[in-house]
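User: Teach me something about this protein's shape.
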Amino acid sequence: MNGRPARTGWGRAIWLLVLVVAVGSLVVSEVADQAPRTNADRVHALAGDFACPVCQGQSLGESDVPIARTIRSTIRTMVDEGRTDAEVRTMLVDRFGEDIDYTPTGRGLTGLVWVLPVLAAAAALTGVSLAVARWTSGRPRAQAGSAAGSDGAGTSGNTSNRNLALVGVAVVAVLAGVLVARTAGDRTAGNTLTGDIRSSTRTLLAEAGVAAPAEADALYTQVLEIQPSNVEALAYRGWSRWRTGDRVAALVDLDDAVASDGTFADVRVFRASARHAEGDHAGAAVDLTVLDDLEAPPIVGDLLAASRLRQRIAGALASEGELLAALELLDSGLDAAERAGAGRQPERAALLAERGWLLASTRVPELVERGLAGLDEAVVVGPTDPYALAYRAVVGMSVPARTDQVAADVRAFAALEDPPADLTASLISLGLLDG
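Assistant: First, the predicted structure itself:
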């Protein structure tokens, strides 16, 4: 009579503990996945929950290939129209299949991803609870005959066993609860036992950026083994190979990179430079014209300005009799610099100077006049641009009315801290500068 109430009390305590853990897991799961507060947050969160259909290991939010941008735009439109997350998921799964969804659904076989952890936890807890119940019911009978002589020791052992069992129940319950909470809260591509493939490729790309050419080539190749369509790895491996003299393989990589994602700004610059060096000036001009319509980072514009790649390609086109194509390339760059604002004024001055020089070099009076007007504008935009000053001085030599201006341009050029050596040599050869 004295044992049954104790056993009943322990049983109730065990099941109460199981109930608390289960409810706690559900609460933690819900709190861990709060809905985004703004439409932009929702779009960002949804894009991270779906795989890019043509990439490996990248989500829609991480990939920059055209199809990923198109899908993100569709998600944004649906969210702005008031569609629910479930409707967006249904649309994407219907169009691209279940594999695109990083978050398993609760339907069909996929629902086992959610159900199995809970079933495993329930089975473990039930088994431990039944064992505890057997221990607590069997011990009093075994100890009844020796109660007088060993009551203290038996009670102590029984209590110890019960405490140990309860600790086991608590540990199993907590671990199962954590598993359920983590599974229900966020089951994305990054939560895998083998790690995040996206983190590994980013690390490899960062290491390749500071590695020696041979090591960089191996690192870029390793990235491409993981993600064959990684446009950054293709572009930079191609450029690295170009710089080390492997031109055939370099052009293959650069062409593959453009085919993978023609909107990646860096590869357009790399391929334009390679094409120009190979004598394909028209192809190089196409790459730069496409680049002008992209939202390239400022560093790309700085690279073009420093290398004068656009001007060199335009000059090569003009020398082949393709003056119109050369002017179109320069005008495309001028439009892009105009859209970028005041920060691109130095580049704009250099392009105006090149345009004016090419027009004046035709020696056609009307075009020479237009060229001089362009050079005047270039000096106004960039008073210290060495090419604007040197070109205007040279062209102005044939115009008597500009004698004073020629002298002023030469003085301004000579006062520059570090003028280009080729321009200095040209002015010396024409007698405008002392040797």
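Now, about its shape. The mean pLDDT is 79. The domain at 198-363 is CATH 1.25.40.10 (Serine Threonine Protein Phosphatase 5, Tetratricopeptide repeat). If you'd like, I can walk through any region in more detail.
User: That's plenty for now, thanks!
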